[in-house]
Design goal:
By secondary structure, this protein is of the alpha+beta class. The protein has 6 helices and 17 strands. The strands form 3 sheets. A 6-stranded mixed beta sheet has the order 8-9-10-7-1-11, sandwiched between helices. It has a 6-stranded antiparallel beta sheet with strand order 13-14-15-12-17-16, with no helix packed on it. Strands 3-4-5-2-6 form a 5-stranded antiparallel beta sheet, with helices on one face. A hairpin with a 2-residue loop joins strand 8 and strand 9.
């Protein structure tokens, strides 16, 4: 069993509490807050009114409120956005990023811990701190949200050994799930094009939320013709916003060009061939379709 643990120092933790906390989140997020309980956490997104991607996060019930586990590079904007929507709601939004940290470890290790269950988003307490089976994909393993002061004692008790965060990024990218640089996706594609349905971030049965109308329309009218897909660089490098061509037809665009690259691809286009090697100005690459994405 792999006993590696990744301290995700690139994550921020907010705490949303108050009489209106549940309704406040329900009116904003793409998922259903009623799914979140002491035993269940969810993945969700915050979209523009047009349904474009803005932010994504994991929501975990904690005491009388909710932890929001989000990427640090987006955290300041998320904090501002939540406060913008707050208006007269009886809600407190606290940034606990200096006190709490997220630690991630493998799926098998998660299953070996007492009280764990093999259910996406399943949540239980370990010495009063929540452990979650990642609600996006079980192969992303377990997540522990814990006060920094208690972190190393809990890791020792769980027999977890600190590993390089790059290995977590690599694993996430291989799975086809964006591990970082989420700010490069903002306003450039619809939430549903981020594979949020397959990653359990959208609930099509819940009522209104920001961006719901376009999200539902794309789904119901079968208008989903583009997807966010991972790229494997074969040689050279990619540039952000670089267009991708096949047989002189534009079939996509590079959105994240760094070590863990992703592109928005017209996957239904007859010119798109997932086995093709694409040439860019400064390199060559392949676009791959993750196993969990049935397209």
């Amino acid at each position: 069993m792999n006993n590696s643990v990744y301290i995700l120092e690139d994550r921020s933790i907010f705490y949303i509490n108050g009489l209106d906390a549940k309704d406040f989140l329900q009116n904003l997020i793409s998922n259903d807050i009623n799914k979140v309980s002491d035993n269940s956490s969810c993945f969700a997104s915050l979209l523009t009114p047009q349904g474009k991607f803005l932010y994504e996060f994991i929501i975990v019930k904690h005491k009388s409120g909710y932890f929001i586990d989000c990427e640090k590079s987006q955290s300041e904007e998320i904090f501002k956005q939540l406060n913008l929507y707050k208006i007269r709601s009886r809600v407190d939004i606290l940034n606990l990023s200096n006190e709490f940290v997220v630690a991630s470890f493998g799926y098998e290790k998660y299953l070996s811990i007492d009280n764990s269950k093999d259910i996406l988003g399943f949540t239980f307490k370990y010495r009063e701190d929540p452990i979650i089976l990642d609600p996006r994909n079980k192969n992303l393993g377990g997540r522990l949200i814990i006060n920094l002061e208690k972190l190393y004692l809990s890791l020792k008790k769980l027999d977890l050994k600190d590993d390089k965060i790059e290995n977590y990024y690599l694993q996430s990218h291989k799975l086809g799930i964006v591990p970082k640089s989420l700010n490069k996706l903002q306003n450039k594609l619809f939430g549903i094009e981020c594979n949020f349905e397959e990653l359990n971030a959208i609930d099509f049965k819940k009522g209104c939320y920001v961006g719901q109308e376009n999200t539902a329309r794309i789904k119901l009218k079968n208008k989903l013709s583009k997807r966010l897909l991972p790229i494997k660089i074969i040689s050279g490098k990619l540039s952000e916003d670089e267009k991708i061509y096949s047989n002189e037809t534009e079939i996509g665009k590079v959105l994240i060009n760094e070590e863990y690259p992703f592109a928005i691809i017209k996957f239904l286009d007859k010119n798109f061939d997932k086995d093709q090697i694409f040439k860019s100005k400064n390199g060559s690459f392949k676009v791959f379709i993750p196993e969990w994405l049935k397209i």
